[in-house]
Amino acid sequence: MIEFRNVTKRFQRTKEGALPAVSQFTHTIESRTIHVLLGSSGCGKTTLLRMVNRMESPTSGQILIDGEDVADADEVQLRRSIGYVMQASGLLPHRTVMDNVTTVLRLQGQSKKKAHERGMEMLELVGLSPDLAKRYPAHLSGGQAQRVGVARALAPNPNIVLMDEPFAAVDPVVRRQLQELVLDLQRELETTILFVTHDVDEALRIADEVVILTQGAQIQQHGTPSEILANPANDFVEEFLGVRASRDLYVGDDNIVVDSSGRPLGALTGTQPDGPGFTGAGEGPNQ
Questions:
Q1: What residues have CB less than 8 Å from 64, skipping those under 6 apart?
Q2: How far apart are CA 194 and CA 113, in angstroms?
Q3: Sign of the torsion angle spanned by Cα atoms 125, 130, 132, 137
Q4: Per residue in 5-16, pLDDT tens?
C-alpha cells in the first residue's frame, strides 16, 4: 500500500514565493490494484509518481509504503525494489535486450546464469520471442521496446511498478495490445501498479481506480471508472471526460452509441452506454 500524506512539492520560485507542482496531496493506493493518475500535462501527476521512488523528494509531507516512510529508505535500494516503465522505454542503447531486461537483477547480485534464466522467462511473459534476446534496442519496433521495458521492470518481481505515460509513443493498435498486456500481467502477478496518463480512454480501460487531477495535483474525483462515469463530481470532471459523461447518449443501429447530434461515440458491449460495457471512440478535450 502507498500512502501520500499532505504531500507538497515546489520547484520554481517567484516574487510571491514557491509555486507548488503538488499541493497538500493526500491519497492511498491500495495494494494489488492498478491505480491511474489522470490529468492534463503539468497537473503534477508525474511528480507524484517520481516521489514514490525518491527520484524527487517532497518539500513537505510523507510518502509511505506499507507504513514505512520512503524518506528513511536507502534511495538506491528503494529504486531497485520498485519497477519503473517510462514513455520512451528508457532502454540502454548499447546493451542487448537480455542485458537490459536483467540490469536490475545483476545489480542486485544475481549470477549471470540465474539472471539469464529469469530474463528468458520475462521475455516469454511479455510475449516476445527468445530470438530477440541478443538484439539491440535500435533493432526493435516501438511496441517491442515497450514490452522489453515492462519485462525489465517486472524482472525483479517488485511489489510496486510505476508507469509514466508508458504507451504514449506507440500507435493505437499497439497501445491497445500493451494495455491488455498490463492487465494480464497485473492479474497474474498481483503487482501494485501506479499508472500516469492524460488519455481518458486508457485510464478507463485499465484502472481499478482513477484519480482525476487538476493543477497542483488537486483531486477532483476518484473512484472506479464506472462510478466516475455514472456520477461525475463536478463540471470539470464532466468536461474532462467529454462525451463519456454526457447523458445525451443514444443507441443506434448495430449497437453504435451516438450523441444528440448523431455523432458516433463508440460501440455498446454491455447494458448501458455510460457503463463499463461502453467502448468509447471519441476523444476528450485533453487528448
A1: 2, 3, 5, 70
A2: 31
A3: positive
A4: 999 999 876 555
233-255 pLDDT, tens digit each: 999 998 898 855 555 555 565 66
What is the rounded CA–CA span in Å between residue 245 and residue 250? Answer: 13
In 3D space, the residue among 269, 287, 83 whose CA is nearest the CA of residue 202 turns out to be 287
Q: For residues 183 and 202, what is the distance between their CA atoms, to the nearest angstrom?
A: 12
SS (H, E, C) the chain: CEEEEEEEEEEEEECCEEEEEEEEEEEEECCCCEEEEECCCCCCHHHHHHHHCCCCCCCEEEEEECCEEHHHCCHHHHHHHEEEECCCCCCCCCCCHHHHHCHHHHHCCCCHHHHHHHHHHHHHHCCCCHHHHHCCHHHCCHHHHHHHHHHHHHCCCCCEEEEECCCCCCCHHHHHHHHHHHHHHHHHHCCEEEEEECCHHHHHHHCCEEEEEECCCEEEEEECHHHHHHCCCCHHHHHHHHHHHCCCEEECHHHEEEECCCCEEEEECCCCCCCCCEEECCCCCCC
The predicted model scores a pTM of 0.84
* Amino acid present at 38: L
- Reference 227, options 252, 250, 244, 202; nearest CA is 244
Question: Can you name the residues that pair with 266 across neighbouring β-strands?
Answer: 257, 280
Q: Side-chain half-sphere of 180: how many Cα atoms within 13 Å?
A: 8
Cell of 54: 525518491
pLDDT tens, residue by residue, 20-61: 899 999 999 999 999 999 999 889 999 999 999 999 999 999
Supply the Cα-derived Rg of the chain in whole angstroms: 20
**What's the rounded Cα separation, in Å, for the pair 266 and 8?**
39
- Residue where the block lists cell 487538476: 214
Cα–Cα distance for residue pair 144/58, rounded to 1 Å = 34
